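agent> step 3/5: call structure_predict on target 'TetR/AcrR family transcriptional regulator' (Streptomyces yanii).
agent> reason: downstream docking stage needs a structural representation; sequence fetched in step 2, passing through unchanged.
tool.input:
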Amino acid sequence: MVAAGAALADEVGLANLTMGLLAERVGVRTPSLYKHVGGQEDLNRRIAALALREAADAVGVAVQGYAGRDALAAAARAFRAFVLEHPGRYAATIGMEPSGPDDPLATAGQRLLDSFTAVLRGYEIAESDVDHALRMLRSLCQGFATLQAAGGFQWSADIDESFEWLIAFADRGLRTL
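tool.output (status=ok):
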């Protein structure tokens, strides 16, 4: 049910995903969905956890065997590709707070952070600055990808070229710390 909801969120947008629409998509009556999920909020939480697991997998695989700028570029490109391919399910992750350390949302989110933390090991960053560097990378990558997914880049410059510029900018910044 969650996978169907995530696919539908990617198709129609998270804001337009409803239990009724999901029931229609999977060919059941809406009350039947409540055997699988506790309601819209529960569905959104499960979609968010799924999205974080999938994003962590994509980034983790992409950075294997790379270090420094190459790892940064691989992680950023994989993350961007995931958000562009799955904008609805990724939207579910934004602002969704884990209920505790064992919440699937927390464990999946930590896996994604671990992948980006591995990227940072290729730079000489003080342990006290790692959280700041992670927030910077998240802001750059998530901001770019979600803006692009929403059609936020309407001017003529090539979007891929702009993204490569962002990677180079982040790499230069991380190397100067």
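agent> step 4/5: record observation. The chain has nine helices and no strands.
agent> proceeding.
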